[in-house]
Amino acid sequence: MKLLTLSSLLLAACAAMAQSPNNENLPTNSSAGVAVKDAVKAEVKEEAKAKVTPQGLLTVHVAGANNNKGEIRVLIINSQQQFDSDDQAFATCAQAIITQQVACQFSAIPYGDYAIFTFHDENKDEQLNVNFFGIPTEKLAISRIDLAQNSEPNFAQSQIRFNSQHGQVFLNLQ
User: Fold this and answer.
1) Beta strand spans in the chain (E)
2) Which residues contact 123 (CB under 8 A, 6 or more apart)?
3) Rounded average pLDDT over 141-152
4) In this predicted model, what pLDDT tens digit does every residue of 99-143 receive, in sequence order?
5) 8 Å CB contact between 59 and 168
6) Chain-centroid distance, C-alpha 77
7) Residue 86 pLDDT level (bands cut at 50, 70, 90)
8) Residue range 96-107, pLDDT digits in tens
């Protein structure tokens, strides 16, 4: 389709040039020139639309908090590097807890693969607290992971595919 569009542009330009030998009397605002410019603008807009990644609304429902103290933090992670380190997550949400659960909404999330990490931040220090041995003292959940079965998950095991105008994920803190 692109070749056909470009070839029609070339034909229009050639027709305009043929009407005026040596291009001496060809006005810069000729109807053929305007048609070529309009067609180029339309082509650029079409290409820009094609390059836009689809996006949607993702709602993450988290249940199972010990109490209503503090907040539940939800992190959307889109790479192994983010999963393995303290790098900033792709998107985050912190919600006050009501009836030991929350729902976080993330708008304009591009379709793709993500892992979701959530924890009950009882003391609102924005960190998952651990004891002397490195064991979490606050409840947490990771998408697609049963922490009783897998204590060392990775991004590949945890990732979900998001490709919906409105997707929902349900996680229970453990």
Assistant:
1) 55-63, 71-77, 91-96, 101-110, 112-121, 140-142, 160-162, 166-172
2) 70, 129
3) 94
4) 999 999 999 999 999 999 999 999 999 999 999 999 999 999 999
5) yes
6) 10
7) confident
8) 999 999 999 999
How many CB atoms are closer than 10 A to CB 118?
Answer: 27
Which amino acid is present at 120?
H
Residue listed under structure tokens 């490195």: 134
Q: Is 33 exposed, middle or buried (0-12, 13-18, 19+ CB in 10 A)?
A: middle
- Using the predicted structure, report yes or no on whether residue 9 has a pLDDT greater than 50: no
Name the 3-class secondary structure at 163.
Answer: coil
Amino acid at 62: V
Average pLDDT value for the chain? 84
- CATH class of this structure's domain 55-172: mainly beta
Please tell me whether residue 130 adopts helix, strand or coil conformation.
strand
Domain borders along the chain are 2-51, 55-172
- Name the strand (E) or helix (H) holding 40: helix 31-51
Which residues does 11 contact at the CB level (< 8 Å), separation at least 6? none
